[in-house]
Sequence to fold (169 residues):
Amino acid sequence: MKSNREIVSLVWSLVGAAVALGIAFAVLPMSTEWTLASLGGSTLFLFGETTAPAAQPRALFGGHLGGALIGICCYRWFGDATWVYVAAEVLAVAYMLGTRTAHPPAAANPWIMIHTHAAFAALLQPVLIGTLALACTAWCWSRLVPGAPRYPSRVDQPAPPHPLEGWRA
Fold:
């Protein structure tokens, strides 16, 4: 059974995630609700796994912006055929692992950008503005309770190491 402290912490995290998503919806036009799907997944990291490497700004912003840019470029250059979705996803995963900006929810961004036929302006709005809304809310929210884990725990923390790091053939 969970202790009262654990239950309060869980509820606090859930309310923080709801507030962050509410703010993101408030600052973004309703026509972009589909592009917020990956931001919803980011709240798990920002409010539930606050100190995880994948939650830190480098991964949060790098993953979302990089994944979205790859999706937009692939759509603009090749259209929206099935193979384009696959290629964009593989490129985004390679980008995130290679640059150590892995943020799992952002792996949805290439598909979202292709599916919505996004223009380059989508990088600013909704991707950057939505990501900023979540990060700023997480920063503020993490400071409201004394002793709670602070967001970010480390601004430049790479996430995670390359999967073949230390591997020998």
